[in-house]
Amino acid sequence: MNARIGYIATNTFREAVRDRVLYNLIAFVLLLSGAAIFVGQISIEIEKLVVINLGLTAVSLFGVVIAIFIGIGLVSKEIEKRTLYTVLSRPVRRWEFIVGKFFGLAGTLVVNAFLMAIGVFAALLYVAHKFVASDAQILVAVYFIVLQFVIICALALLFSSFSSPLLSAVFTFALFVIGNFAEDLRGFAGMTHGLTRWLATGAAYLVPNLSALNVITQVAHGEPVPPQLIVNNTLYALTYAAMAICGAVLIFDRRNLK
Amino acid sequence: MKSTGRTTVVASVLLVTCLAGSVIFLRRVDQMRTTAALDDVLYISSPKLLKRLSLGYDGLMADIYWTRAVQYFGTRHQAQAKSFNALAPLLDITTTLDPKLLVAYQFGANFLSPNPPYGAAMPKEAIALVERGIQANPDAWKLYYELGFIYYIELKDYLRAADAFERGSHVPGAHPFMKILAANMAQHAGDRQMARAVWRTTYDTSQDKYIRGNAVAHLRALQVEEDVTRIQDAVTAFGKRTGELPPSMMALAKAGLLPGIPIDLDGHPYKLTAEGRVELAEPDQFPFVTKGLPPGYKAPPAKDLTQMAK
User: Fold this and answer.
1) CB contact under 8 A, A54 and B67
2) Which of A103, A201, B89, B176 has the smallest number of Cβ neighbours within 10 A?
3) Backbone angles phi, psi at B263, to 5 degrees
């Protein structure tokens, strides 16, 4: 990787981990994982299921919140504090700035997901007293959640490259919601004809397909995730995120920063 | 005292007082509201809509709805309720959100099928629930067992029960007893031994305290009914032999009609009334018993069956 991208990514990571809100959100997820133990006790025979479902859902939702709220401020904060001008006055290209920011945020989210997953596994160990082979599937679910974060932070960066933080947050969250309905959108496209079909199909492929990256319920029941799905989801998430980053670079490169 | 210090003290005292006051008033409000009105409300009753609204986190949503179903049933059961209107929809939502949640089919059927206060008296809904479970989980032999159990115990439909046990016996890993149940159902469906075998299998194949307690209570009831029938036969035989009713259990034992003074499973001797009727000394300890009860006996509030699992 380009050294300048590495420096920007490292600084973005450092800046993100200094944010107290981040720690509060992680603490909240760990608290929820702990609370899952008690939720399981007021039900019947789903203690382990609740720990996995609640724990991973919390990791996913709070991770998305972190991705959105840090991602939307990545560019606008630099403009607001006027640090962007200092950075760009050095031999740093605009695309390097965007890509560096993306890697910094993605790195932060990977570390967050790792910490939050430790909390889920600790709660699971407390409830089940031991790990079984099928629990390894939880790691696949966590990996897919990280892929979701990669897509979401690329989208947040894309919107923050041309819009205000508030609008960027709204756009990214809206795409997160729509992304969970992507398969329905494709189903809808299949039922229509002519131009509508083309438009609906185009829209269905343009929005991120996040439902394919959600295997929480499946792994909670100990069902294996096919290796081919892991490969395809990885390729999909990386190409989609790369597409969004390219969009962000194209817009930011042409943006008048004066 | 300085002005700021006084403010701190007054504000702190007020804060604690108001907190205590709010708790007292809230408790009064809770007492005034009928829980039934609150419990029976399902703001979103469409399982499909809920699945969409869960944004892919349907597993967690199913857990929440299953917990709600358990709490709903538990609260209504404790309150000796006669109606469980929201139970079937809650179970429908739960199993639509997560069709693999086997416990919801197994326990849900156990909540739905028995008569109040031990269940909702909805065996048809219980069958529909388990059939849906079998469709989504054709390899879960316990669901076939559950289906056969409802047909056998609740509906006395022995043919369908035999069919369910038969279908389940072909599932890989099924309990070997499924084949025996299927084979014996046609010939011995009405036998007490058959009922005992079914309840025994229920006890052996479940780890849950409620299910096991329920099985123990039914096994105890079957034993009492068998004892009462046997003693009552001895009383009849004594009458035929002597032309009068036996004055005591000892008289039956001395006449060689009983091996000794008969006692129930808790060690209490059975009572013999002046009219020659055999009765339990402690009927409250034997829920589900239909024989050996004093005339006009009214069962106490539903027992906590989990206590009987031991």
Assistant:
1) no
2) B176
3) -120, 155
Distances (CA, A) of B191 to B113, B156, B201: 21, 12, 16
Q: Does the N-terminal peptide bond of residue A224 adopt cis geometry, omega within 30 degrees of 0?
A: no
* Domain extent listing, chain B: 39-214, 223-309
CATH class of the structural domain B39-214 = mainly alpha
**Residue A245 tokens, joined:** 């980053």
Whether cis (ω within 30° of 0) applies to the bond prior to B295 is no
pTM: 0.74
Token reading at B114: 């028995």
HSE, CB side, 13 Å, CA atoms: give it for residue A143: 16
Which token pair is A154? 């690329």
| Six token digits for residue A8 | 């920007």
- DSSP 8-state assignment for residue B152: I
Confidence of residue B40 (pLDDT cuts 50, 70, 90): low
Residue among A3, A29, A26 nearest A16 (CA): A26
Q: B63 contacts in A (CB within 8 Å)?
A: 39, 43, 46, 49-50, 53-54
Element (H, E) at B279: strand B278-279
**Chain B partners of A220 at a C-beta cutoff of 8 Å?**
59
Residue A27 gets the label, from left (phi > 0), alpha (psi -120 to 50) or beta, of alpha
Say what the pLDDT of residue A228 is: 92
Domain boundaries, given as residue ranges, for chain A: 3-254
How many residues are given for chain A?
258
CA distance B90 to chain A (A): 14
Backbone angles phi, psi at A231, to 5 degrees: -65, -50
Q: Which member of B55, B100, B208 has the closest CB to residue A177?
A: B55
Measured in angstroms, the CA of B143 and the nearest CA of chain A are apart by 16
Query: What would the mean pLDDT of A40-63 be, rounded to a whole number?
Result: 84
Burial class (CB in 10 A: 0-12, 13-18, 19+), B112: buried
